[in-house]
Write a structure and sequence with these properties.
This protein has 408 residues and is of the alpha/beta class. Helices cover 21% and strands 28% of the residues. The strands form seven sheets. The protein has a five-stranded parallel beta sheet with strand order 3-2-1-7-19. The structure holds flavin-adenine dinucleotide (FAD).
């Protein structure tokens, strides 16, 4: 097709969408509009090697600038879209520019959940979502500095791990009674607790943050268990899908921009992909919202295919990873609704898998801790929701596919 496709939001999904649109044969105009001043980039290193300074900014980019020139993609970076006019097929930027489009792809991502607590706007309190956030954190990210991380989820814990390696003093404050409680089972939480404690991180579980104190700059984090001294605070307490632009334009939203399996919103010529969407997944039999690179890339491919006239339904087993110290956690599937966990291997060895099993013996998800083979095999297996033999599953010497019952 030869029409104008505008992509709003120049993040990871947008970068993939541009690649796929040209690959699948879109010959018309592509306009990419992003609020951040940077080319589409990968966010995972922001809480890992980019924060520690081991990775250059150029290495984050999905593609170098030359790629967009070669593919004839018009870039409008540092530009926020303020409103969408679906009937008139136009969008308006905050600088008042109007841009006409024939079809639209929304890849708006997420925004961090902010703390509305006393002192939360003191200097030295940071969130971590963008390159600019990291640039603001780095000057205070120095050996000996006292860092308080608010939130014991994967981003907070990745930051804690990098900070210990860089010689900072680290406290992590978490409301729940265990780490990463939203995504992993108690056995995996316990393993990570031990990892962080032996690296010298002070964990404050079942502890709420009540405010911040300091003279212009944060000096103390006030918690339900007392005050913690702080030179630097990094808050990682979750994200919210970026839906305001879509909702204001009249698109259906429900904790995410609602799309179908082809990434089409409630308007037939407006698509959406990535963190901002709520989408159906036929393999899992329900609608969901995901915050992961895999989802951003695959849904962007689906959206590009739809825009190029192909019908390619998006239904894949979700997967995710987190790097903390030398430990790689890889999660395949969604554990929701599990009845029991079967461990493969001994956590004390540093390498094991936690398998989430439904009451009917079906395998729902696998957390692989330094066991990439289990992860790779689980990713393939889970689409069939296999029934497993619990005794065989508990034996790490038996490959995961051989622990499945063949009768069903
Ligand atoms: C620190 C960190 C670590 C992570 N680690 C992992 C990991 O280890 N593994 C993993 O799978 N995932 C990880 N993720 C999640 C992953 O990065 C996201 O799921 C992914 O970036 C989503 O891509 P996206 O394109 O949907 O959104 P984003 O990459 O967030 O891009 C959205 C873009 O849209 C822009 N935008 C929004 N509204 C407008 C507007 N109105 N006008 C113009 N532009 C707009 C935003 O500024 C942003 O640049 C991590 C995320 C973070 C922040």
């Amino acid at each position: 097709m030869n029409d104008t496709i505008a992509i709003v939001g120049a993040g990871h999904a947008a970068g993939q969408a541009v690649i796929s649109l040209r690959q699948y044969g879109h010959e018309g105009r592509i306009v990419l509009i992003g609020e951040e001043p940077w080319l589409p980039y990968q966010r995972p290193p922001l809480s890992k090697q980019f924060l520690s300074g081991e990775l250059d900014q150029e290495r984050l980019y999905v593609k170098p600038a030359q790629f967009y020139r070669d593919k004839d993609v018009e870039l409008h970076l540092g530009t926020r879209v303020e409103s969408l006019d679906l009937a008139g097929r136009q969008l308006r930027t905050t600088s008042g520019e109007h841009l006409a489009w024939d079809r639209l792809l929304l890849t708006l991502g997420s925004q961090v959940r902010r703390l509305g607590l006393p002192g939360a706007d003191l200097e030295g309190i940071h969130y971590l979502r963008s390159i600019d956030d990291v640039r603001a954190i780095q000057p205070g990210f120095k050996p000996g500095a006292r860092l308080v991380v608010v939130g014991g989820g994967y981003i907070g814990l990745e930051v804690a791990a990098i900070a210990r390696k860089a010689g900072l003093e680290v406290d992590v404050v978490e409301m729940a009674d265990r780490l990463m409680a939203r995504v992993v089972c108690p056995e995996v939480s316990a393993h990570y607790r031990q990892l962080h404690e032996s690296a010298g991180v002070r964990l404050h579980l079942e502890t709420g943050v009540e405010g911040f104190d300091g003279d212009g700059r944060v000096a103390r984090v006030l918690t339900s268990a007392g005050a913690l001294p702080a030179d630097l605070v990094i808050v990682g307490v979750g994200i919210l899908p970026e839906t305001e632009l879509a909702a204001d334009a009249g698109l259906d939203c429900d904790d995410g921009v609602c799309v179908d399996e082809y990434a089409v919103t409630s308007h037939p010529d407006v698509l959406a992909a990535g963190d901002c969407t709520r989408h159906p997944n036929a393999l899992l039999g329900r609608r969901l919202r995901l915050e992961s690179v895999h989802n951003a890339l695959e849904q962007a491919r689906t959206a590009a295919a739809t825009l190029c006239g192909e019908r390619r339904a998006y239904a894949q087993i979700p997967w995710f990873w987190s790097d903390q110290y030398d430990t790689k956690l890889q999660i395949a599937g969604l554990s929701e609704g599990y009845e029991r966990v079967i461990l493969r291997g001994d956590p004390a060895s540093g390498s094991f898998a936690a398998c989430y099993v439904h009451e009917d013996d079906r395998l729902l998800a696998v957390d692989a801790i330094n066991t990439p083979r289990d992860f790779m095999q689980a990713k393939k297996l889970l689409a069939d929701r296999p029934r497993i033999d619990p005794g065989r599953l508990a034996d790490p010497a038996i490959a995961l596919p051989e622990t499945c019952r063949t009768s069903d």
